[in-house]
């Protein structure tokens, strides 16, 4: 993993934790996760 990937992963985990705390729906999380995966695939 490069620094960009680690940063994105940390960002996603923070968003996930925030979503759990605030009770946001998982659809938003799935969209964020797909975006994260696309970014990781581009950077490879």
Question: What percentage of residues falls in helices of 4 or more residues?
Answer: over 70%
Structural class: mainly alpha
Element-by-element helix/strand order: HH
- What is the overall number of helices? 2
| Termini separation | 9 Å
Q: Using the alpha-carbon principal axes, give the shape.
A: flat
Tell me the major beta sheet. none
Total E-strand runs: 0
Oligomer: single chain
Beta content comes to under 5%
Which segments are poorly predicted (pLDDT under 50) over 5 or more consecutive residues?
none
Overall mean pLDDT: 77
- Rg, rounded, reads 11 Å
What is the number of independent domains?
Answer: 1
Key terms:
86% helix; 44 residues; mainly alpha; single chain
Task: Give an overview in words.
With 44 residues, the protein is mostly helical. It has helices spanning 3-22, 26-43. The longest helix is centred in the first third of the chain and has 20 residues, at 3-22. The chain starts with a helix and ends with a helix.
């Amino acid at each position: 993993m490069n620094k960009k990937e680690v940063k994105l992963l940390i960002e996603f985990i923070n968003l996930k934790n925030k979503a759990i705390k605030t009770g946001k729906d998982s659809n938003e999380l799935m969209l964020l996760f797909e975006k994260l995966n696309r970014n990781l695939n581009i950077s490879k």
